[in-house]
Amino acid sequence: MKSNRLCFIKLSLISFLIFIIGLYPVVIYCLILFRFLNLSLWWQWLLIPILFYFGFVLTYYGEILISGAIIRFFRIYYEAGDFVYSYTDKNAFKWILICTLYTPARKLIEIFPVGGIKNRYYRLLGMKIGNNTLVGGVIKDPCMTSFGSNSTMGEYAIIYAHITNYATEKLTIKPVSIGNNCVIGAGAIIMPGVTIDDNVIVAAGAVVTQNQHLLSNRIYTGIPAKSIQKK
């Protein structure tokens, strides 16, 4: 119990420090503004909404990219396998830490699109993404997910690479691999351990169950996903 509490404190401190570091760009920006802004001049009041906007953008990108860069620099990536869902388990601790840092950024990305920076951020988190690939929806475990080239993931689709069982205190992590020239339809759900070969279409709303292997040049639909025809 004591070791769990210490690990929780450690997790909280690490998260706090990383989020604070992400605020430094906007702090420097504000210091520069206070130095050169003269609000006694009426026309500078007209700049305030624009300056607030740039401050928000700096906060947004700072929190996303700096946290991602720290994760990349210190290699804070978890591994596949079965683990005890506890702060004292090294791999589970990394998973919880990534969730703590990544979830707020993911929510922001869902609300405010960031274009090509989204793929760059995912790569910082350990995700493999090929060329000309558009990743929409939600990626729950970037470091356990890989996309080939020329693939598309639709809005509201979700990819899970983990399952948590609170009753048994078990965390199961399995990688998800998606090939080249694939389409994951809007609202589709991809579960842990899934492998999708090249040239596969997963229809909107389909559910690809654990460890399922989708063969190339086919279209899959339904719950669970089943092949309905060859492309």
Verbal overview:
It contains 6 helices and 18 strands. The radius of gyration is 21 Å and the shape is flat. It has a single domain, classed as UDP N-Acetylglucosamine Acyltransferase, domain 1, CATH 2.160.10.10. The chain has 231 residues and is α/β, with parallel strands linked by helices. The mean pLDDT is 91. It has a 6-stranded mixed beta sheet, with no helix packed on it. It has a 5-stranded parallel beta sheet with strand order 2-5-10-13-16, covered by helices on one side. It has a 4-stranded parallel beta sheet with strand order 4-7-12-15, with no helix packed on it.
Give a brief rundown of this model.
By secondary structure, this protein is of the alpha/beta class. Helix content is 41%, strand content 21%.
Key features?
231 residues; UDP N-Acetylglucosamine Acyltransferase, domain 1; five-stranded parallel beta sheet; alpha/beta; six-stranded mixed beta sheet; 6 helices; 18 strands
